[in-house]
Amino acid sequence: MTAKECITGRRSIRKFTDQPVSHELISKIVETASFAPSWKNTQIVRYIAVEGEKKEQLAKCTSSFPGNGVIISNAPMVVAVTIIKGRSGFERDGSYTTRKGSSWQMFDAGVASEAFCLAAYEQGLGTVIMGIFDEDEAAALLEIPAERELVALVPIGYPAESPVAPRRKTVGDLLTFQ
After folding, report:
1. What average pLDDT score do residues 146-161 get?
2. Is the pLDDT of residue 93 over 90?
3. Which conformational region is residue 86 in: left (phi greater than 0), alpha (psi within -120 to 50 degrees), or beta?
4. Ordered structural domains, the chain, with CATH
5. pLDDT tens, 37-61?
6. Nearest-CA neighbor of 70 among 144, 155, 142?
7. Which H or E run includes 156?
8. CA 105, CA 15: separation in Å to the nearest integer?
9. pLDDT band at residue 64, thresholds of 50, 70 and 90?
C-alpha cells in the first residue's frame, strides 16, 4: 500500500465486527506510530489500550454525546491517547518557545493520532478519533497521572462498514502560492 493509498483510503469507522484485536497487533501499530514527528523529538504521546469491563465503563463517559458511547461499546478495544504535559512547545526552564504556547502539545497529539490510525488501517483495522467525552471522568477511570493529559479516545477494530469518502475541497480552495 502506498502512502497515498493509505491516506486516501482510510475512513473514520464507527461500526466494528466482534473480532478481538490482538495485543501484538496493537503493539506493532504503536511501534509504527512512534515514528510520528514531534516538537524537538519530545515524543510526548502515550497510549492506553482499554478492553472488557473498563471499556464499557469508558463508554459511559460520553453522556454529552451518547453516540460515542455506542461506538465505544461496539468496538473491541479503545485506545486512549494521552500526552506528557509541559514538554512540547516549552524550553527547559518551563517558558514557551513560541507565541503558540502549549498548543504544540495538541499538534503533536494530532500528528501521532493520525500516524496511529494510518498504521492501523495498513493492518486492516478501522479507527475513529473521538474528542467528545467527559475528560475528567474518563481520566479518573483510566487513572491518568497528573503529569499527563487525556487528549482523545480511538475505538479500534475490524471494520463492519465501508463508508464512502466525504466530499473534499479542491486543491484550489486549499492551496495558494505567493
Report:
1. 97
2. no
3. left
4. 19-160 (3.40.109.10)
5. 999 999 999 999 999 999 999 999 9
6. 155
7. strand 148-157
8. 30
9. confident
Query: If 0-12 CB within 10 Å is exposed, 13-18 middle and 19+ buried, where does residue 110 land?
Result: middle
Query: Strand 77-84 relative to strand 148-157: parallel, antiparallel, unpaired?
Result: antiparallel
pLDDT the model gives residue 37: 96
The residues near 113 (Cβ < 8 Å, ≥ 6 apart) are 45, 81, 129, 151, 152, 154
Residue position matching grid coordinates 499527563: 148
pLDDT for 79 beyond 90: yes
Q: What is the rounded end-to-end Cα distance, in angstroms, of the chain?
A: 34
Contact 138, 43 (CB under 8 A): no
* Contact by Cβ (8 Å): 126, 13: yes
- Please count the helices (runs of H) and the strands (runs of E) in the chain: 7, 4
Q: At what angle do helices 52-59 and 66-74 cross, to 10 degrees?
A: 160
| pLDDT reading at 35 higher than 90 | yes
Confidence at residue 102, expressed as pLDDT on a 0 to 100 scale:
85
Phi, psi of 78 (to 5 degrees): -125, 135
